[in-house]
């Protein structure tokens, strides 16, 4: 089993920055993906950015140029540096581990961008 814990959310003013962290633990092996999703009320979770166990990264259009992923050398910690945050980035951010079509989610961390 895999466990996911996120941290680093909070309140920030427009134009500010936050750094989210995701720690994956448990049975982590083979090819897998760690990803950040976000969800606003009334909508499904939406992918923000991801990294594979082969260290291949992907950023959605909304994240590219503003958000940056980084990991440790075990690829079980996934940080996301978020810069130039805007009110539309307000959401609950979730970290996901996906392996063999099985997804494990963390409880989420709230990010609020407001003046």
Q: Secondary structure elements and their pairing?
A:
Elements: E1 2-7, E2 10-12, E3 18-26, E4 33-39, E5 46-52, E6 57-59, E7 67-71, E8 77-82, E9 91-99, E10 102-105, E11 109-113
Please provide a brief summary of the model:
0% of the residues lie in helices and 56% in strands.
SSE order in H/E notation? EEEEEEEEEEE
Extract low-pLDDT stretches.
none
* Sheet with most strands: 7 strands, mixed
Gross morphology is: globular
Specify the helix fraction band.
Answer: under 10%
Terminal Cα span: 41 Å
- Find the count of extended strands (DSSP E, 2+ residues): 11
The proportion of residues in beta strands is over 45%
- On the 0 to 100 scale, the average pLDDT is 95
- Structure class: mainly beta
Helix count equals 0
Radius of gyration: 13 Å
Question: What distinguishing features does this structure have?
Answer:
single chain, 115 residues, 7-stranded mixed β-sheet, 4-stranded antiparallel β-sheet, 0% helix
Description:
With 115 residues, the chain is an all-beta fold. It has strands at 2-7, 10-12, 18-26, 33-39, 46-52, 57-59, 67-71, 77-82, 91-99, 102-105, 109-113. Strands 2, 4, 5, 6, 9, 10 and 11 form a seven-stranded mixed sheet that branches. The radius of gyration is 13 Å and the shape is globular.
């Amino acid at each position: 089993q895999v466990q996911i814990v996120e941290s680093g959310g909070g309140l920030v003013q427009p134009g500010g920055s936050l750094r989210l962290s995701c720690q994956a633990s448990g049975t982590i092996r083979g090819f897998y993906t760690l990803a950040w999703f976000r969800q606003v009320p009334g909508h499904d979770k939406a992918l923000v950015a991801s990294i594979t166990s082969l260290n291949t990264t992907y950023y959605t259009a909304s994240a590219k140029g503003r958000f940056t992923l980084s990991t440790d050398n075990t690829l079980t910690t996934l940080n996301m540096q978020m810069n130039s945050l805007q009110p539309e980035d307000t959401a609950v951010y979730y970290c996901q581990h996906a392996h063999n079509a099985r997804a494990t989610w963390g409880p989420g961390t709230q990010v609020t961008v407001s003046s």
